[in-house]
Amino acid sequence: MRSLLVYLLLFAVLLPGISPWGTIAYYNLNRDYIARVLCENRDRPELHCDGQCYLAKKLKAQQDRQDKETSERVRNTPVVQLFCEAGTSFSFAPLTVLTDATGLFTYKRSVATYLVDELLRPPRR
């Protein structure tokens, strides 16, 4: 059941990208019919259109429809404000600075020189 849902959602996401390929496949399967009946230039065979004008018109209409749906979706998307900052107050009072910095930082020097000596030795023959 879960895999069916995954495939269904994947198909729904990929469908807008696949739909022009469906139109092109329909054109390739029905090229003779489109050239004989639906082509705008069927009376002028010297143009060798063969229904490509019909294909271009369908692809253009499909692209315009997708652009219109996208722009409507963007326009109708509600704006949700997730964070509202309360009024910020500024103060120019002097900041207090810690003068005793001995407890803030500790430094301990521990260098392992024996590891470096082992790495930097030339190979033995």
What form results from the Cα inertia axes? elongated
What share of residues are in beta strands? Answer: under 5%
Radius of gyration: 36 Å
The arrangement of helices and strands along the chain is HHHH
Profile the largest sheet.
none
Number of strands: 0
Helix count from the secondary structure assignment: 4
Low-confidence stretches: none
Q: How much is the average pLDDT?
A: 78
Structural class: mainly alpha
Distance between the termini: 67 Å
Helix content range of the residues, please? 40-55%
Describe the overall structure.
The protein is 54% helix and 0% strand. By secondary structure, it is mainly alpha-helical. Helix 1 runs antiparallel to helix 3 (52-75). The chain is elongated, with a radius of gyration of 36 Å. It starts with a helix and ends in a 6-residue tail after the last helix.
Topology, please?
Elements: H1 2-29, H2 31-38, H3 52-75, H4 113-119
Relevant terms:
4 helices, mainly alpha, 125 residues, single chain, elongated, 54% helix
Write a brief caption for the model.
The chain is mainly alpha-helical and 125 residues long.
